[in-house]
Amino acid sequence: MPTGSSQFLEALAEAGVSYIFANFGSDHPGLIEAIAEARAKGNTIPTVVTSPSEFVAMSAADGYARVTGRAQTVVVHVECGTQSLAGAVHNAAKGRVPVLVFAGASPFTQEGERTGTRNEFIQWIQDVHDQRGLVRGYMKYDAELKTGANVKQMVHRALQFAQSAPMGPVYLMGAREAMEEEVKPVALDLSQWRPVSPAGLAGETTAAIVADLASAKRPLIVTSYLGRNTAAVEELLKLCVSHGIGVLESVPSAMNFPPDNPLHQGIQWNQKQQNAALAEADVVLVLDSDIPWIPLHNRPLPAARVHHIDLDVLKEQMPLFYIPALTRSKADCVTALAQLNAALARDEALVAARSAHWAEGHAAYRAALRAREDKPAAGITIAYLMAALRAHVDANTIVVNEGVTNYQPVFDHLGMIWPCSIFTSGAGSLGWYCGAALGMKLAAPEKTVIAVGGDGSYMFSQPATVHWMSRHAGAPFLTVVLNNRGWRAPRLSALSLHPDGYAAKANTLDTAFDPPPDYAGIAAAAGGAFARTVESPGDVEAALADGMRAVKQEKRSAVLDVWLAG
């Protein structure tokens, strides 16, 4: 007879889950037994990746899902493992990434009433009032497996939630008795568990947007994460090129529009200045963006006609969010852009005038970027470093960006032009980039994966665990640590609000890591990675070449600890 655990594995395989990132505990004997049985019998189950850190496991599943669009599974133990997921749950929720988290639970019997009953002291200590409540605020769906008889239905329902737009993480928990329970085999019609079909624009909304775009002199599109769908990038390019519409990327978490296209008006993050393109736009179309602008410093004209199309147009996890939109549509941007492309007539003269104007702004933006990329005489600049790294990227490269205060220069100076070639977490819990890079490499083993992030983020990422897993799973990638010897973000934030205060005059703000740890050495010791510290501009190009050689030819990860100036 199959068990709840074997039915759990069967459901994952049916759903196309490729990996289980597992941190097993004493609550998982049924699952461990079912995995061993499946291997002995040659049954198809997801590949198990041993994950000594729950945070890294969740980040790896997150990275895999961003590349493929398919949910992966993370297995953790009871409430302790659930809490150890920590900020990685936040990242998946805010980034709208489908991940299935399964946690065990303390057995609910203690005198042998069921198989799996309590037999270890820890099972009393780990029994808490509301284990699901620990992560409920971040999950699209949470439930308990109360019997092995319907485990498959519960797994498929959870994944249906995870993969319906807007996507996100889901959480299941099950006690040992349910996972050990012998049950009758269950055969399901998988068609009834498909994700909800994406929606398009209502007819009257399409007409309103088309009318505004047709009459606009300076139409502008603002987007942040549309580029996680390659088809959306294609539809956006078609619309903008056909009708001379400019594109501004605001706090991007993907490559949304090719930065070498003359219609591209650059990227805006936290700059305390009005964006020139946004300031002159008379029609603004916001597509898949969490922060289209920061109103304190930057906003559209009061007379601008704004329309908002988004998978998550209400921003359901944000207590405070509003923009002055005339229409708001919860719609899939691929579908919505296809509707606009079909409905909008081309005006040759208008397109030429619009395109020429946006091309001027584009040229000025690009010229300013290139002027900063010269090799410095002393001290490595982020612009020079990214320009040097740019020589090693191509259409077969994925970049994971957690530069934090250097988010924008990484985007700007790498200039990735291919859809799904660069990602940020789109969230705020640091340490994501190394685990995510591991997951992306597993998702696309033919790709070269490069993780670029700050030294603070690197320490958050649990690099010893990441690089042990990288070697264990055969998933090498290059990490470039942007080492500025401390947490730069809180220092800049404090000085921003108190430029003349005590902090501005203090000798220390308690945010420095100086002297820093041996970041590259950690990876070498834990996972046999190629390791090098780079402190001089003259050593940058050789270090990048050697690091890429280690990843591509030696098939091992590489870590470059690059000391930035200032």
Explain how this protein is built:
The protein has 566 residues and is an alpha/beta fold. The chain has three domains: 4-187, Thiamin diphosphate (ThDP)-binding fold, Pyr/PP domains (Rossmann fold), CATH 3.40.50; 203-370, 3-Layer(aba) Sandwich (Rossmann fold); 373-563, Rossmann fold, CATH 3.40.50.970. The protein has 22 helices and 18 strands. A six-stranded parallel β-sheet has the order 2-1-3-4-6-5, with helices on both faces. Helix 3 (54-68) packs across helix 16, helix 9 packs across helix 12 and helix 16 packs parallel to helix 18 (463-473). The longest helix has 24 residues, at 348-371.
Main β-sheet, spatial strand arrangement: 2-1-3-4-6-5
How is the biggest beta sheet arranged? Answer: 6 strands, parallel
Helix content: 25-40%
Strand content: 15-25%
The total tally of domains equals 3
Stated plainly, the CATH topology of the largest domain is called Rossmann fold
**How far is the first residue's CA from the last residue's CA?**
65 Å
Please give the oligomerization state of what you see: single chain
Q: How large, in whole angstroms, is the Cα Rg?
A: 25 Å
Q: State the secondary-structure class.
A: alpha/beta
CATH class of the largest domain: Alpha Beta
What do the pLDDT scores average to?
95
Low-confidence residue ranges: none
What is the approximate shape?
globular
